[in-house]
Design goal:
It is built from nine helices and nine strands. By secondary structure, it is of the alpha/beta class. The strands form two sheets. Strands 3-2-1-4-6-7-9 form a seven-stranded parallel β-sheet, with helices on both faces. Strands 5-8 form a two-stranded parallel sheet. The chain is globular. The mean pLDDT is about 95.
Length: about 280
């Protein structure tokens, strides 16, 4: 179906911006979110008739309700939801403070799931829709120094796998997108690190904390090509549950699958005996 209406969160930069631009060029209508009011005004002035920006902080339930009211008033339907907004966080598990961990989950998991829940009644009435959950290859395999962020994406993937099975009979499709390192602003100013530092982790989590800023602007992934991949999946008759993006991500997922299979094979006898 042409002339779809897309709702894309976090379109100020990176993958969200690239996807919004690609969807507009494709001829579909975009409702996109920014955190700042001035960004909303500037976007709307430049894209009148082709797209509409709204202000949304995923951790603000009132703004989620306001955004959904705008979606309903704009077109009365919603064909595609892309949960892209969120932020990165580096630090060893022991280094991460309670408030820091909760902030990551509030944005990357709880806010994302609350918006998904807000969209579902509309898609259920339509008996149609496609939800894209932007996860990460670190939502499939844990990395030292990236455990809190990875945990938020692991949680998103677990809930999304269940959701995909729940809504499939209702005509709603869901795809989990797992990018590797992409040349976006992810590792830039918005990226956060644990305030606490424990020297014992310098050889593990500390290495990651050092590298994450160093690779900013040098990542292998092209956001424009990722955007085209998502549009292609959206138009597919049989979209995948998971879309892995980038050579690094393919390597990550492959290594995790091999590791799980090796453990399963090595300990199968023990596992199978743990029954009545």
């Amino acid at each position: 179906m042409k002339n779809k209406t897309w709702f894309i969160t976090g379109i100020s930069s990176g993958l969200g911006k690239a996807l919004a631009e690609a969807v507009i060029a494709h001829g579909d209508f975009v409702i996109g979110t920014f955190r700042q009011a001035e960004q909303v005004a500037d976007f709307n002035q430049k894209n009148a008739g082709k797209a509409l920006a709204v202000q949304l902080d995923l951790t603000n339930p009132i703004q989620i309700r306001q955004a959904m009211a705008i979606v309903g008033a704009q077109s009365g339907r919603l064909d595609v939801l892309v949960n892209n907004a969120g932020f990165g966080f580096a630090g060893a598990i022991e280094e991460a403070g309670d408030a820091e961990m909760r902030a990551v989950f509030d944005a990357n998991f709880f806010g994302t799931m609350q918006l998904t829940q807000a969209v579902l009644p509309l898609m259920r009435r339509q008996r149609n829709g496609h939800i894209f959950q932007i996860s990460s290859h670190s939502g499939f395999k844990g990395f030292p120094g990236f455990g809190v962020y990875g945990a938020s994406k692991f949680a998103l993937e677990g809930a999304s796998e269940a959701l995909a099975a729940e809504v499939a009979p209702l005509g709603i499709r869901l795809t989990i997108v797992e990018p590797g390192p992409f040349r976006t602003g992810f590792a830039g100013k918005a990226f956060q690190q644990a305030n606490n530092h424990i020297a014992d982790y310098d050889g593990t989590a500390g290495i990651f904390r050092q590298k994450i800023k160093a690779v900013d602007g040098k990542q292998e992934g092209d956001p424009a090509k990722a955007a085209q991949a998502i549009i292609r999946i959206c138009e597919s008759e049989n979209p995948p549950l998971r879309l892995v993006l980038g050579k690094v991500a393919v390597g990550t997922v492959t290594a995790k699958l091999q590791s799980v299979q090796a453990d399963l094979d090595a300990w199968r006898e023990v596992a199978e005996r743990a029954v009545f």
